[in-house]
User: Fold DUF222 domain-containing protein from Orlajensenia leifsoniae.
Amino acid sequence: EAARLIAVGAATASRQAFSGQRMPPRHPHVAAAINTGLLSVDAAATIITMLDRVAPRANPDDLIATERTLARRAPTLTLEQLHRLVAQAEAYLDTDGIGEREDALTADQSVRIRQEPSGILRFTAHLNPVNGALLKTAIETLVTARIRSNHDTDPTDSAPVSIPRMQADALVAITEHALTCRETITPLDLATIIIRINHTDLLTGVGAAFIDGIHQPISAGTVRRIAGQAGLIPMILGGDSEVLDLGRTQRLFTIPQRIALAERDGGCAFCGTTGSYAEAHHLAWW
Assistant:
């Protein structure tokens, strides 16, 4: 905490040249937002850390413009939303660095298992965005199916189960399946992972892509390598897309339609929850 405060202070305080002349802060737009009380230290640290990381390779004019935009938008965002925006900005400023960050995250992957004195086993996993998205999607799919099934049962029949407990049960179910079964667990056969990428970037293999629900960008080259595997579906922005309007003779939602709804609404149109836990429904029943 102290180191972060010092870093933010150093980046937003006015400077003095060797000649004694006063110089503006290294990050003037962030400094102005802090001085007016609009920007928290956590938000400022998030922005400054990214800008300093990409500064050696980014265009100076783009750096200034990005800082201005982030400092202006940050006060209206939650910290999680800001992290997502900063990740997108970093991908824009330092496209060449996306692959390097991917390699670093992959090299840092690990799973640690420790048995607590109580007898509980504690698993701590560090996965890169692609591998993490695979596990995250599988768990969320099973949890969503369980929540939906609970809607059809009498709530007095059993005690309520928390989401973390459901996620633990889902992980166990996936593991049991991997050890004993050769068929896909229902409803995992419908699970999909959406990767958003610009059409030109997909064709050239240069640029950034974003996995639905994951902040850290991945490289376009990675998308080209994994597209079509294990339920991974690239959402190509600006390119041809599958026809979504199937007419009124088919009422149930297809996977492409669910993807389009999540992209349009950003999750549940009513409460804002993530698309993994939302259901598709018609405004008019039929």
User: Anything to note?
Assistant: The two ends are 55 Å apart (CA to CA). Confidence is low (pLDDT under 50) at residues 240-252. The longest strand covers residues 110-115. The beta strands are 15-16, 22-23, 110-115, 121-126, 193-198, 208-211, 218-219, 232-237.
